[in-house]
């Protein structure tokens, strides 16, 4: 468990029981200069995706965003095909001046896509600014669907969480989400949704 702010852990508890291995074929053949728009209930956030330096992580994100990747509904146990995971999911964890976290289909912080994949680190990708997209996890090699966006540089997360993109427009939206009132467990007092993600292959 990683504790970037004392007893607070940037993770998701509850490990999936299966592991999925990704190939680089679809990334190498079909991706390049990828961007995406995160449509939230507070406004749009445009991001660039580091598909050349974090291909597996970006492939996973894109697949879950578009519905091209199958995932398991954590509440029913049924496999979901052709439906995006990132439709109408809560920003379930917000810590002021630190990060906003989403990507759990249950909205509890314990859910995921029904599989895990290994960490993917690159020397050039660091938590060195606000607006960094990075994978949430519950320890080494436990990535799934949850991710966060930093509200400031968080260098202590380097080598622990996989960076895969950065905000290019809409940091005002990120900061607005980051300023929402929360309870003692960092859960927002109002529902803030990631309504959908549009991926652009430019």
UniProtKB/TrEMBL annotation:
EC number(s) given by UniProt: 5.2.1.8
GO molecular function term, any single one: peptidyl-prolyl cis-trans isomerase activity
Keyword annotations: Cytoplasm, Isomerase, Rotamase
Enzyme class: isomerase
Region (Disordered): 181-202
Subcellular location: Cytoplasm
A Pfam family recorded for this sequence: Pro_isomerase
Keyword Lipid metabolism carried by entry: no
Domain of life: Archaea
Assigned GO CC terms: cytoplasm
Major place of residence: cytoplasm
Matches recorded under CDD domains: cyclophilin
Domain named PPIase cyclophilin-type: residues: 43-199
Gene Ontology BP terms: protein folding
Protein name, as recorded: peptidylprolyl isomerase
Organism: Natronobacterium lacisalsi AJ5
